[in-house]
Amino acid sequence: MTTHWTAKNIDAFRYRITSDFLMQLEKKMESETPKISRKELAKRLNLSPGRVSQILNGAMDNFSLEKIIEYAQALNMKISVVAYEDGDPSNTRGPVDSEIFNECWERQGKPLTFFDL
Description:
The protein is mainly α. Helix content is 50%, strand content 0%. The model has no long low-confidence stretch (mean pLDDT 91).
C-alpha cells in the first residue's frame, strides 16, 4: 500500500496542516459580513498588509502556535490541537482535514466539554 505524500517528511506534514489552517482563515474572512480584507486582518494583527499576504499565501516557515492563535483570535476564532489515532499508522490516507472535525463537532451540537456529549 502506498503512503500519503505527507508521510515523506515532517515538512510535508506541516505544510498540509498549515495549508488547512490558512484555508480556514480565508473561509472565515470570506464568510463575514462585511468580508474581512487582508488589509483589515493586518490592522487587527498590527502587521503590514504585505506580511499578512505573505502568510496567507503560504510563507509560514516558522509559524508558531502563538502566531496561529493570534491569527485565529484576530478573526474571533479559537484553536484546538487534536492528536488522534485513525488506524492508519503508515499514513496511507494522510491527516484528516479540519472540515471533517468541524462537521463532526457541529453534528454533536458543538459540545464544549465531554459532559456536553
